[in-house]
Structure formats: C-alpha cells, structure tokens
Amino acid sequence: MRAGEREIGRRHAGLLRPGSISALLGLVLVAGCKPVGPNYSRPTLTAPPAYKETGASSVVPPPPSPDGGGWQKANPSDGMLKGKWWEIYQDPQLNQLEERIATDNQGLHQALETYLAAQDQVKSARSALFPTLSAGPGVSRNRVSQNEPLFNRASNPNYGEFSVTAQGSWEPDFWGRIRRTVEAAHENAQASAADMAAVNLSLQATMATDYFQLRGLDSETRLLKQTITDLENQLDLTDRRLKGGVATEVDVAQARTELETTRAQLVDVGVARAQYEHAVGTIANYTLAGFSIPFSPLDLDLPKVPLGVPSQLLERRPDIAAAERRTAAANAQIGIAVSAFYPTISLTGQGGFESTHGGTWIQGPSALWSLGASAAQLLFDAGQRHALTDQARHQYEAQASGYRNAIFMAFQDVEDQLSGLRILEQESGVEQKAVASAQHSYDVSNQRYKGGVTSYLEVLTAETTLIQNQRTAIDLEARQFVDSVALVRSLGGGWDSTQLPK
C-alpha cells in the first residue's frame, strides 16, 4: 500500500458514526440559546417636570399638563424643531452656508468615515456566526524511504499525489459570546452615528453663531459710519464757528479728536469681522482667498424657539444618545467576559478527492471526507476571567454614570441658555431706554451749543454717551441671536434618536 493510500485509509477509519453526527446536529441546534450575561436595560433617570427658566418671549413653552391626568410619553418630534433648524431665522445667506456643511466640511466627513468603519466592525463581528470554508487543489511528486519499517520492496518508492479538497470549521455560538460581540459592535456603531450627529450640530451652531456675530459687527459698522458722517459735520460747524469768532480752537481740537477716535473704532471692528468671515468660510470649506460675505447689518427679528418638555431632551441630544449607546455596548462586554467561563466547542469537516494518478483523480473511489468536533474548557487561569468580568462590570457602571452625567449637563446647558435669553431680553429693554435718553440729551446739548449757550464739551460728552449706548444695544441684539442658536444646539437642533441606524 502506498503512502497516499494509507492516508486515505486513516481518514476513512476516523469517520464519525451516525450517532456522533446526531450529537453534532444537536450542538448546532443549541447554538441558538440565550447568550450569557445580563440583558441591557437603559439606566433610569427621571427628567424634571418643567424647565426653571422659561421667561423669554423668544421661547415657546410647552403646553400645560392636561386636566385630570399626567403627561403622556413625549414623542421626540412633538413641538420641536425638525430638520434644517436654521431656517427659522429666515436668512437665505445663512441657509446657503449651512447647506455646505453636509457636503463639504472635512470635520464632518471625518466623523462619517469613523461611523462607516464602525459599521464594518459590526459586519466583521457578525461573520463569526458562520462557518469558514476553504478549498484548493494540490499536486505533488513524492518518494518514500525504502528503509522505513513498512516499506514494500515490491512497490515503487516514487509516486504522485493529486488532490482537491475543501475544509470547513465552525464554532457554534453556544454561550452567546459572538452574539454579544456583535451586539457591542452594533451599539458602538450607533454611538459613532450619534457622535457624527453631534459634530454636525456643533458645526451648524458654530456657523450660525459666527455668522450672526459678523452681522452684528456690520450693524456696528453702519452705526460708526453714520456717526463719522455726523462728526465730520460737527467738525465743519465748529471750524466755521471758530472762523466767525464764536468757537475756540479747543472746540475744534475736541471735535477732530472725537472724529479720529471713531474712525479708529471703525477700523478695529473690521479686524473682528474679518476673523468671523474666515471662520464661516472655513466651516463651509470655501477657499478663503475668494470668499467674502456682503455687508449685512443684523436687521432680523429674533425667532421663537419651541422648547418642548424636559423628557424630550433625552431623545433629542446626540451626545446623550452616544453616551447611552456606549452604556449598552459596555453591558454587552459583560456577557463576552462571562462566556469565557464556558467551554469552547468547534466543528470541523473536510471533503474532496485524492489519488496517486491523474486519470483517477476525480472518481468515486478517490473521494474522501471527515467530520469532527472538539471541546476545550479552561481549568485554571489564576483568577484572570474573574478579574476581566469584574472589569467589564465596573466599566459598565462607569459608562452608566457618564450617561447620567451627560443628561445632567444637558439640562444645565438648556437652563443656561434660557436664563441668558431672559436676562438679555430684560437688559436690551433697559438699554433701549438708555439709548433714547442719551439721544435726547445729545439733541438738547447740540441745540444749546448752536445757540451759543454752552461749550462744545457738553456736546462731546453727550455724543460719546450716545455712541456707547448705541453700540451696547447692538451688542445685546447680537448676543440674543447667539444665545438663541445656543438654545437650539442645547435642545438637539432638528435631530432625535429615531435617526440612529437600526
């Protein structure tokens, strides 16, 4: 008997009996049992019944609780912003800039690729649920030692071997280790999707904030240019009065000083405007050398932002969703750690054709096949599995605490923006009265100066006070728009957790 024939004989001798095959099929069936480890349950946290700060007129509070009953579970989309939230400001230029973020911003593209990589990790983990198969032909020329104990002197020591075989192996997911791994990968992919949504929301909010800051500076620029025109007229009047012997050289010098000071302030505003323009262009991924925003004073009405009930916040903030998904992934890791206490069961199989002659290669007598099963149980590891399981449990608790903390910080964020809008609205109302009073004081002082009743110093003082109050009023208006955007961001924009991939 040649060596190849002896090998075939050994393989056929190791074939499993029908009873053994039934046992293997039984293992396949029980592979669908419930995976070990705890099933995930979202950490509990009770949202407050209402927000503390709801006094600003630019905020739409939620409807009152219905009579005779408590709140029903909030739908994440009820009474909230949807989709392109920036359209509430009714600014076509802002709409155009915001639209470019989704298609052109490289930071968002980076977050997208990170999410796609996490999706691929899910597919990779899921592949372990299925058998691995391989196949290939083999051709060899061999010589058997004539001095080996079983060599037949009458046979030819040289022989050829032709084979084509397929091998398969499978580790049934009896204890759920693979399913828990897929579960963890899936939850991490969802967390990555929420991270991408958080990056997108942050970019959108930063874009709107910088844009409104720029438009506030344009309003300030318009005020300063108008003031410069008035000061030029004041200087001309003072100079003519000097020539007429009514004014003094001190009056002319004071008028010229105020004019040049205001011109310097105008130049200084241009520095900040250029920086905001660069920031907007960078977020929108424009080439800065050819990008500019036209002169656009902030002549807009502050829109009303729908607030919704506090419980909706848990479903609309992408950072909260990401923290919750990572908590679920950490829970799955506990099951993975627990599965190490159970035996590893593997199934293997092989089949094909093998012959010493090419002419009989693919024939019935040349067929071979084998099935096998093995189980391995780790008996001693010096406490490693217990340590890894405890580590997984502690990491889950850490993630759960991080999830709750994200919720606490989110509620603080919303309350901060609500109080900011309320206080700025009050401050703006008071400042408008200050502007009106300063304007009246300036008008009276200017008339007194023209009538020769007072010196130019009184006019200069009143005008300086007026300009300061007007610039403060413009700054407060811009800050209200900035805080409005911040409130939208803190409420989650137009996103909610239903947009997470399934």
List keywords for this structure.
two-stranded parallel ribbon; single chain; 10 helices; Outer membrane efflux proteins (OEP); 4-stranded antiparallel β-sheet; about 500 residues; 2 domains; disordered N terminus; alpha+beta
Chart the SSEs and their pairings.
Blueprint: H1 3-13, H2 18-30, E1 59-60, H3 92-104, H4 106-127, E2 132-143, E3 158-170, H5 177-243, H6 249-283, E4 305-306, H7 313-316, H8 318-339, E5 344-355, E6 367-376, H9 384-450, H10 456-490
Parallel strand pairs: 1-4
Antiparallel strand pairs: 2-3, 3-5, 5-6
Q: Please, could you describe this protein's structure?
A:
The chain is α+β, with helices and mostly antiparallel strands. The protein has two domains: 96 residues, Outer membrane efflux proteins (OEP), CATH 2.20.200; 312 residues, Outer membrane efflux proteins (OEP) (Up-down Bundle). Helix content is 58%, strand content 10%. The protein is built from ten helices and six strands. The strands form two sheets. Strands 2-3-5-6 form a four-stranded antiparallel β-sheet, covered by helices on one side. The chain has a two-stranded parallel sheet with strand order 1-4. The longest helix has 67 residues. The protein is elongated. The N terminus is likely disordered.
